[in-house]
Amino acid sequence: MRSLADLMRNFLQVGYVTDDIDAAASYLESTFGTIECVKHFRSSLGRASPGAAAGSFVVVDGVTAEEWLIDVALVNAGATNLEIIRPLGGAVDLYRGAIRPGVPSTVHHLGFRRRRRTVVENGRSDRSARGGPASQAEGCHALVPG
Q1: Strands 68-77 and 80-90
Q2: Cα angle vertex 76, ends 69, 49, to 5°?
Q3: How does pLDDT run across 62-76, given as a tens digit for each residue?
């Protein structure tokens, strides 16, 4: 990335936090004119979460969380994904601290698409070591203000 324009070209998500998922969803639907938000209650990730999909995990402050439980609502506004998070339990303090009581939702993070190279021991990707282009995988990186 060389400029703000490079960063914004890969912008994909605005993440919000709330203490009332229904009020926040209604607020975004009416304010942004989106379709109805899709809600998932008691969404679970973390090593000790029996409801989590196999291989699912979340890392908070560099440590794989044992438990991470949220309510989440999702909707797209054009090409931008809007995510509303209501923290419930486990390693979710990074969300709790941003909630403003009585406010339907508060911006918490911005998500950007990023590209990663697969690196082998010699510091070059498998494909670039054979003369081909480097192997690329897409990921998402969130910037949390504060």
Answers
A1: antiparallel
A2: 15
A3: 888 878 889 999 998
Cα dihedral sign for 146, 4, 27, 71? negative
Neighbouring C-beta atoms of residue 140, cutoff 10 Å: 12
Mean pLDDT estimate for the chain: 76
Question: For the whole model, what pTM was predicted?
Answer: 0.71
Distances (CA, A) of 126 to 116, 136, 137: 13, 11, 13
How far apart CA 102 and CA 142 sit, in angstroms, is 25
Contact indicator for 80, 74 with CB cutoff of 8 Å: no
Alpha-carbon separation of residue 109 from 13, 89, 123 (angstroms): 8, 19, 32
Which structure tokens are listed for 19?
């203490």
Structural domains in the chain plus CATH codes: 4-116 (3.10.180.10)
Q: Half-sphere exposure of 35 toward its Cβ, with a 13 Å CA cutoff?
A: 7
State in Å, rounded, how far the first CA of the chain is from the last one.
22
Torsion of CA 75, 79, 80, 85, to 10 degrees: 30
